[in-house]
Amino acid sequence: MKYLITPGRFFFAIAITAFGIQHFIYAITGGGLGPPWTPANHLLAYLVGAALIAAGIGLATGIQVRCAGIMLTSVVVIRALLCYAPKLAANVRDPGPWTSAFEILAMGGASLVLAATFTPRRSRTDRTGARPGALFQAGRFLFAISLIVFGIQHFLYATFIATLITPWIPGHLFWAYFVGVAFIASALAIASGIVAPLAATLLGTMFFLWVVVLHAPRVAAAVQNANEWTSLLVALAMSGGAFIVAGALADRD
Length: 253
Fold this sequence. Notes:
Radius of gyration: 17 Å
Low-confidence stretches: none
Shape: globular
Number of strands: 0
Number of helices: 9
Structural class: mainly alpha
Distance between the termini: 11 Å
Order of helices and strands: HHHHHHHHH
Helix content: over 70%
Strand content: under 5%
């Protein structure tokens, strides 16, 4: 499963670069295909968009992957603390901030895992001063914690989630609960190391199937809908992130 790092890196990089492009579209047009979680300030949208595009290119080309991964994680953690933490403090029962915050934190976790894989193990630290083992463990657990949040949400809001499933697939409510179980099981496997590469591989496959079966048709039906584009890119990033985690765990095993 070590080979999964490469396709995972490209999936992840494409999604991150596309997020950056969305920020530029928003900054230029004031709307368009800008993601719903983009900064309201247009100058900040330019800055964040440039950072995301730079990180995506670095991850895709293999140039300064460690720096790109750490920079990306810093951007999403700051975003989560400044934007979503206050919203959660104001209304902890609102599912929106929970979803958005942990989606980007999961991406940050995958970025750290990828940064760790590009740090020579013989080195105690990389050029950023970060230890590869610490990067790997921090990213791994941040990714796993995010999956726990997603799993709990699938149980709390199963009825709503069932409405998002493609109509021709039967048993919508069953799949909503099933995916919740899959998230939590994957999180426990990744955190504990028990069958972790297999769990992360299956998770990445599930997300990729969502891209093809669920999100691509929704985007095709509503090309101007920024929410649909963002949902597709989040699923693609999560698929890539899960494959990165799977490959990294297999390599370390």
